[in-house]
Amino acid sequence: MRRFLSSGSDDPALVGRNRILSELSGSLEAVLGGSGGSYCVEGAAGIGKTRLVRHIGTEAIHRGMSVAGGQATELDRMAPFSTLLTCLQGESAPGLDVSSFASATDRGQFGQVDRLGEILEDHSRQRPLLVLIDDAQWMDEMTAFALRILVPGLSSSPVVWLLSRRRLSGRRPPQEAIDWLIDQGTRLLPLEPLDDDAVAQICETVLGAIPDSGVLSLVSRCSGNPFLLRELLTTLSDAGQLAVSDGTATIVRGTLPANFVSAVGARLRELSEDARKLLEAGAVLSRPFTAHEAARLMGFSAVGLLSAVKEAIEGGTLVDQGSNLVFRHDLIREAVYDELPGPVLSVLHREAADVVREEGRSAIEVVEHLVRSGRHIDHQMVGTMRDEVKKVAEGAPSSAADLILRMVNLLDERDPAGPELVADAVRLLASAGRVGEARDLAKRTLRGGLTAESESGLLLGLAEALKHAGRNAEVVEHTRRALARPDVPDAVRARLLAIHAHGLLYIDDLARADSASRQAEEVAEAAGDLAAMVFGMVARTVTLRARGRLADAVELAREAVQVADRTTSDVRHRHPRLWLAPALGAMDRLAEADAVCEIGQREAGELGTAWSQPLWHYQRARLRIANGRLDDAAAEAEAGLRFAEQLAAYALMVPLLGLLAYIAIQRGEDAAGNAHLDSAGKLVTDGIGGGMEDLGWPMALAQDAAGKPEAAMRTLDEIFRCLPDRMLLLVFDVRASATLVSLAQRVGDSKRAQLVVDTSRALADRNPMVSSFAGAAKHAEGLIKQDLNTLRDAVAAFRRGPRRLGLALALEDTAAAEFDAGNRQGAVKLLEESSEIARISGAHRDLARIQERLTELNIPRKPALHGTSRWNCLTESELRVALLVADGLTNREVAARLFLSPHTVDSHLRHSFTKLGVSSRVELTRQVLANTEDG
After folding, report:
1. pLDDT digit string, tens, across residues 245-279
2. Cβ distance 713 to 694 under 8 Å?
3. DSSP bridge pairs for 248
4. What kind and span of H or E run contains 37?
5. Residue of 96, 8, 135 whose CA lies nearest to 59
6. CA distance linking residue 335 with residue 265, whole number of Å
7. What is the band of 9 on the pLDDT scale with cuts at 50, 70, 90?
8. Of the candidates 74, 76, 118, which has an alpha carbon nearest to the alpha carbon of residue 96?
9. Tens of pLDDT, residues 409-461
10. What stretch of H or E contains 647?
11. Structural contact between residues 235 and 316, judged by C-beta atoms closer than 8 angstroms
């Protein structure tokens, strides 16, 4: 990574870029007004990206902004956070101190990103900030991951991001991150080739004369690329192949360079041998380098190379960056590198490995040169390289996997380390989202015949990665194969059994899941593997919840939490509270469950276990639904979904999208609900699995809302088939029992209606302390019997519990029965109470239906409580967040004040911006002041 140099505003490379310059200048004006933004300049090498980005950076400095910028290099991808940290440590952003970033290492990589967000947000409150990353295609994986979080997370702060990139072949984390940001709203600015007028203008500027048709014909070979154009003109001019007469430039006869590489080659031939060797050394090192490093690589003395350094700088090939030298343009470096024969490159990279090792450079840089040299790796070297690759894997799993694969090709076929390296590569590929490659590599390796330890380790790594990818059927398949071998070590067997149990849960095999989880606990306890034991325990809590044995589920989950809390190992990273919270919530202990989520989410932040964050939001969203707070539930689910997208955790996206669809349908937002279901459906089509309740239930509700009850019943076939053994839907949604009975009655399916009633009664009987289940059972029974007293009992039971939406539906159905019994006044009273609950909860579909019934009874609609202005459309949570933001608090400070996560605060803030028609915190503050000055 290297920092920027300034670029003058009269640079000829900016010719023909007026539209893009105008738009980017406008972004600076917006950020000075308090709005954030993000842009990506994209184009081929030499098209002018760097000059344009630097020009905007210079303009930002002149406008009084802080500018943090730098240019990524090819070796950045091996050093976590190297790109972003180098950008933020520049001299153009006074007061931007990232030194405290290092103190966040104990919170894991997510904690470090979170800390960077705090630093940038705090700085932007004092001075608007522009962050520039040039050649972003080379940035390291952790910088790419950080951008997924920081760019959207700081969108409401006066921070503007400007990236430039050229597209590279193959799947790379930087490219995928930028593509994701563009999908999320980052403005893509393609830098096209210059038109003929701009080419002629640059020719005139460089040559100081008007080019004739011959010159223009020759430079057309550069395809409108300004860098290639200038290089070609300079080469021709230096070679005396251009003549100027009467203000017109013409070509002098002679051999003309066919392309840029040959032009560079021609210029290099004019340099001294030492200068050429210096450039070759720099090209091999592939990053900013010192004269001392180049001298050692070429076998020269550093002092003896000084004249070559001066020659290269004066010739415009290298640029002096203080202690380092860099190529003036990456295209020059690549041209020099491509001119070197393969055998020469092999030798130079082998020597470079020794040089950079002795210079104290990163061990991964050493590995990179060894791999590029094609040098045979002996067994002793494998251990060292593997340890270093593991360090990189923590922040760059994709790059680490590529390195390992190249290492494997350099191993002796008989080296026993081969299978272990392949197993490492399989895990890394899968964890980086390259599941197909991981699967193919595993299959090829397994065909070769492995020891039990190697095979089981490989299959365990693949299964763990596939589980995170949501491919549960494959998880079961691979763990079953590994478990079939009798000679698998107990520690590995325990983990295999635990993940096998979790996979079985999602393919609906509760009996075998329960058996596998019990075995996992037993084997893990005997092997002393507490992480596997806890993972097996939490799998069994799900089977207990599915069977309606909630007290047992809570007790087992608490035991798992106690085991984890007593350790300081990776057992805590399993986060058993994720399973304790839903068990408590199902028992109507909503406040206790929310407290557990708060503790667990805070612990996850401290441990840096980013994978768990979407699940915490999911659990809190479910608790908000149970509490009758649909708007807050949506904010939590949206925060979780954005987090899952940032992590590329596709398996977690399915249940979150299903939950958002459910909330949207309850709020009467059918189009949004169907859009969420379509997004989830695409993931399922790609092989991402989920529980049947995740999508089947909201999809059926959407179909019923569209007037298609028969289609809804077909969608629910699998859920009905699993009753009464699998009760998860009725445990999660206490309205489900009555809704299913009503739906079955409307299509004339009395058998299924009775099945739901029987299952609801069994659930209530198993949990006599949970009044909501008693209410749900009575509600379903009252509907099927059409019995008013039973429905009244349902209302009474729901009143004893906290689930307001369950109460609202029971009130509505009881009101209908009261009216049929001739009690019009009682029916109206119940409907009005139900209407008020629906209004407060944000259940607009229920509200519209109830209001229609009241209208039929000639009861006038009540006016809105707060009117209909934009300000009054804010929810209570959105209003609290807006007031604190107007007081100058950052998202993280607001989150701490309200006991929320910063991502949930961001969701509320986004909703407030949309409702109020604003785009910045400054505009929001004006709205707050205008609407609260009287209060």
Report:
1. 889 989 886 555 655 666 666 667 778 899 999 99
2. no
3. 210, 245
4. strand 37-42
5. 8
6. 8
7. very low
8. 118
9. 777 666 667 777 777 777 777 766 677 777 788 877 776 667 777 788 888 87
10. helix 630-647
11. no
For tokens 């392309």, name the residue: 259
Task: Determine the length of the chain.
Answer: 935
Going by C-alpha positions, the residue among 770, 772, 716 that lies closest to residue 744 is: 716
Element (H, E) at 326: strand 324-327
d(CA 104, CA 89): 17
Give the CA distances from residue 605 to residues 326, 575, 617, 906, in Å, rounded to whole numbers and listed in that order. Answer: 39, 12, 13, 17
- Sole residue written with tokens 């080296």: 415
* pLDDT number for residue 692: 86
What φ, ψ does residue 64 adopt, rounded to 5°? 90, 15
**What angle, rounded to 10 degrees, do the helices at 342-358 and 291-298 form?**
130
State in Å, rounded, how far the first CA of the chain is from the last one: 53
Q: Residue 477 burial (CB < 10 Å; 0-12/13-18/19+)?
A: middle
DSSP-assigned beta bridge partners for residue 187: 39
Angle, alpha carbons 892-898-901 (nearest 5°)? 45
CA 440 – CA 438 distance, rounded (Å): 6
Query: Closest Cα partner for 796 from 787, 806, 783?
Result: 806
Distance of CA 82 to the CA centre of its chain: 19
Phi-psi region of 648 (alpha: psi -120 to 50; beta: other; left: phi over 0): left
- Is the whole model's pTM more than 0.90, yes or no? no
Dihedral over Cα of 349, 350, 352, 356: its sign: positive
Token readout for 479 is: 């763990």
Three-class SS of 740-774: HHHHHHHCCCHHHHHHHHHHHHHHHHHCCCCHHHH
